[in-house]
Design goal:
CATH class of the largest domain: Alpha Beta
CATH superfamily of the largest domain: P-loop containing nucleotide triphosphate hydrolases
Number of domains: 2
Number of strands: 27
Structural class: alpha/beta
Radius of gyration: 23 Å
Largest sheet: 7 strands, mixed
Distance between the termini: 15 Å
CATH architecture of the largest domain: 3-Layer(aba) Sandwich
Number of helices: 16
CATH topology of the largest domain: Rossmann fold
Strand content: 25-35%
Amino acid sequence: MFVGTSSDVGKSVITAGFCRIFKQDGYRPAPFKAQNMSLNSYATPEGFEIGRAQAVQAEAAGVVCHTDMNPVLLKPTSDKTSQVILNGKPLGNMSAKDYFLSENRNNLFPKVCEAFDRLSGRFSPIVMEGAGSISELNLKHLDITNLRMAIYAGASTYLIADIDRGGVFASLYGTMALLSDSERTCIKGIIINKFRGDSTLFEEGKKTIEKLCGVPVLGILPYFKDINIEEEDSVSLKSKHKNSAEGKVNVAVVLLNKLSNFTDFNRLERDSRVHLYYTIDPHEIGKADIIIIPGTKNTIEDTIVIKNNNVAEAVQQAFQSGKTIIGICGGFQIMGELISDPLQVESTIGEVAGLGILPVKTVLMEEKTTRQRTFRHQDSDEHCDGYEIHMGETSVLGEARPLNYFRDGGTDGYILNNRCWGTYLHGILDNPSIINQILAPYTCETEEIIDHQEYKEQQYDKLAALIRTHVDVQKIYHDLKS
C-alpha cells in the first residue's frame, strides 16, 4: 500500500507505476483503493462506476477495470454533500456528517474487505492506495481506506511525502509520531516525491529522516513533467493554464464549481496546435476560438453560477459570433433550454433555464447511466470510443439531429452545426479524427496522429523506468516476500 502525509503527494501516480513494474516482471497485479473521493470517474465494461484513477492503474497493470478495485466512491455534489457509490452503483446522497458518523459508515468496512478478498483471489500482488493523510486523528477511528485496510490486508506500506511543497521533515516525522504502534509496524519505508535538482545533495536530509522516523527512505523521485499520467482529481487544475495565448488555437474549458472528468481534455491539451486553458473569466472566454462546457456533478447550481458571474453571457456571445461551442455531459445539459430536477437528485432547486443554445431539455433522474460506448461520429464510418456517466435524460424539442451513432442503433447528442454540438460521451476528444474536425476551421496545420492507447502505454513504461531508477524496488520485493 502507498499512503501519504497529505493529499496530492503522488500516491495515485506511484501506485500506477508499481502496477506497471509488477506487470513487466511477470506478475498479475491489480490496483485497489477502498474509498475514493473524486469527480473523475469511469465506466467499467459491466456498466458500473469507479474512480478514474483506479481505471488508469488497472490499465497500467494490463487488466480490465472492475468495481472491486474501488468499492466506495464519493462524488461531491456540494461542499457538504456527496453521492455515495458502492460497488459501482449509487446509494444516494449523504451529508459529510451523516456519512462519517452514521452506522452506514461502519457497515462499509466489511463491504470493502469483501471487495479486497474477491480481488486478491484473482490477482497478485494487489497494489493498494490510501487516501489523503494517514494521521487525521479525528477521522482515524472511522478509517476504511488507510492503515486499517493495510492491517486487514497484511500490506507492506510505504509513506509518500511531497518535498516540493516544503516541510517534508515535519510532515514525515509528525505523521509517524501520530501513528499507533500497530500502525507504525505497517510502514516499511518512505518515498520522497517531486524532488527538484540533484538528489545526492539531500543525502544528509535522507539520513535525518531515517533517524527521526525509524524506517528507511527507499527512494527520492524527481519532479517530472515529461511523463503524462492522468491525475486523480481536480487538485491538479490549479497548475493548469488559465489564460489565452497567441499563435495557437485557443480552447477555453469553463471552470465549473463541480467540474467532473477533466481528463476529457488531456488528449486535446497535448495537441501541438492547441493552447487549452481553464477559466471562469468572461473576458478570457471571449478570447477563445473554441469553448467547451464540461461535465459537472451539479448541473443546476453550476448553471446558476455561470449566469450570475457573466460566463453564460460570454458563452452566448461567442455562439452568436460563430465560435465553436461544445458541451460534454453536464455541459450538454447546460447548453439546452431547460434542466429540471423533480426528485432533487442533485439540487433542492427544482429547475433552471439553460443557455438556450441547443433545442433540448433535460430531466435529472435517480437511475444513473454508466456504460462504455463504441460509436460513429456524424457521417464518419470510423469507429470511435467513449463512455457515458450521467443521471439525466435529454430530449430534443423538434427534429432530432444526432451527433453520434451506436452499434445497437441508438444515438447520442445533438448537432446544431459543425461548430456547435453537445454529447453525453466522455472521452470523445480522445479520438484524433474528432479533434481534427473541431480544429479544422482554425488551422491548416496537421499533427502526426499517434494512437492514444499506444501513447499511454509508453507513458506507463516511462514511469516504471523512472521509479526503477530512483526507488529501491528490490527492497519492496523483499518486503512482499518476508
